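Quick one, tokens below. Sequence please?
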């Protein structure tokens, strides 16, 4: 189990910081001087180095790891950070598998329990803020809850409007009361019902449609 102890005093520049890493050449060692070259010159900015170590981007000596170099691939950067977050906050994800979906206050409450009162309320709050800022930058796959939200959104934007055509086709049968082969022929009506389904990848859309058909046609 693991729980990163590093945190930022302010997270407003976190996205800019990561974007700077992506566009800059990786250093031999990530020092305060290199941080200043990235235009992060505040005393508080030095906390980024400890954060990178906690996320496994740097080794204890400040040397970039394989994860750091993988992060430089812009097509994969946010996914690399996602894996780093899951590893660095393993304890938090062990108590809530979708910790990335928790609110800042919920994260703070979980961290209070996990740290067992070792940190002040202020520090725990900064840890929670840092976690949420990292989560916001990282890339997460859709959960079932998100899929449901998208389905509801699609239903609101594109209401189901099935087109039903009803055509009565009278087959060519002998006229009424005209005997055919000594048998009285009865007229027969055949109904052809055609349903044009709306295009949708959401199976719930079709469930609603067929429930409506069952109610009104049968």
């Amino acid at each position: 189990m693991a729980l990163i102890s590093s945190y930022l005093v302010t997270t407003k520049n976190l996205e800019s910081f990561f974007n700077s890493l992506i566009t800059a050449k990786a250093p031999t060692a990530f020092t305060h001087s290199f941080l200043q070259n990235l235009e992060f010159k505040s005393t508080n900015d030095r906390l980024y180095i400890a954060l990178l170590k906690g996320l496994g981007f740097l080794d204890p000596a400040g040397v970039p790891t394989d994860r750091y170099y993988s992060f430089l691939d812009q097509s994969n950067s946010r996914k690399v950070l996602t894996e780093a977050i899951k590893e660095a906050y393993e304890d938090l994800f062990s108590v809530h598998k979708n910790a990335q979906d928790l609110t800042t206050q919920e994260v703070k409450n979980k961290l209070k329990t996990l740290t067992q009162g070792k940190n002040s309320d202020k520090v725990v709050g900064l840890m929670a803020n840092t976690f949420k800022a990292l989560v916001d930058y990282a890339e997460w796959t859709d959960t079932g809850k998100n899929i449901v939200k998208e389905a509801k959104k699609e239903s609101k934007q594109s209401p189901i409007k099935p087109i039903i055509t009803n055509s009565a086709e009278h087959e060519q049968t002998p006229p009424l009361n005209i005997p055919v082969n000594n048998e009285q022929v009865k007229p027969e009506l055949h109904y052809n019902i055609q349903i044009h389904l709306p295009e949708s990848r959401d199976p719930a859309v079709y469930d609603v449609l067929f429930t409506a058909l069952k109610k009104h046609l049968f």
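The chain has ten helices and two strands. The chain has two domains: 14-141, 145-217.
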